[in-house]
Amino acid sequence: MKPIAVFQHTEVGAPGSVISILESLGKRCRVIRIVDGEPVPENADEFGGMVFMGGYMGVHDPLPWIPQELALIRQADALDIPVAGHCLGSQLLALALGGCVRANHRREIGWQQIVTEDGALAEEWWGQPSGTALLTFQWHGDTFEPPAGAVRIATSPYCANQAFVVRGLHLGMQSHFEMTPELVTLSLQRNGAQLEREYAQGNPAVTSMQETQREVPARTAQMRTALERLYKRWVKGCK
Question: What Å distances lie between residue 115 and 124, 128, 160, 177, CA to CA?
């Protein structure tokens, strides 16, 4: 069985619950630590699937590993190797397959609800009825436009494109479903000033520091359950 490659771009953008979920589904994982200078692998066929985590950078930033990851995603697509993306990872996936990435009309930070789309495909991936509201952790300023042929499976009032599926194989998620209580704490330690600044400016897509720190264990547990459902469907395509 080939391992699932999990790409970590920053300290805060750690895999969180992803590794334990994939291992519970019978998969072996290898973390590619871009954050520590590890090179991007050249051959997608070394892996049974690939997961790209988040990061503070944007897909258009002049970092040498970004075009390398985009090329690797395209290679995986050509080989029918499933790719999943979280936040920045979802934007990399969208851009690699012909979509676009731009600034959202406002930042989303903290706990925000998304809603699952209508249709059999969305219900298949989420394992929940159409129109189900899910509380998720957000921290992003950019948004993706899904590539041609993609199906959007979740939306929200502040950022319309929240999750998409391509060819029943690849999965992009704007939300940070992978968050653990420890990662929420680390995010606020490193970037809490940005949250407080946006909240003070009246951004309705940002929760207060107090609200962001409320019921974190229960909220992250709910996200883990949702992510388990998504990955249970995603691993069906893994080599």
Answer: 15, 11, 10, 14
Q: What is the pLDDT of residues 30-46, one digit of tens each?
A: 999 999 999 999 999 99
Burial of 59 (0-12, 13-18, 19+ CB in 10 A): buried
pLDDT of residue 56: 97
Instruction: Show the CA angle centred on residue 73, arms to residues 234 and 43, nearest 5°.
Output: 105
The domain ranges of the chain are 4-237
CATH 3.40.50.10310 is right for the domain spanning 4-237:
no
3-state secondary structure of 59: coil
Residue 206 has pLDDT above 90, yes or no: yes
Six token digits for residue 157? 């009032």
Contacts of 147 (CB under 8 A, 6+ apart): 94, 97, 98, 99, 166
pTM here is: 0.98
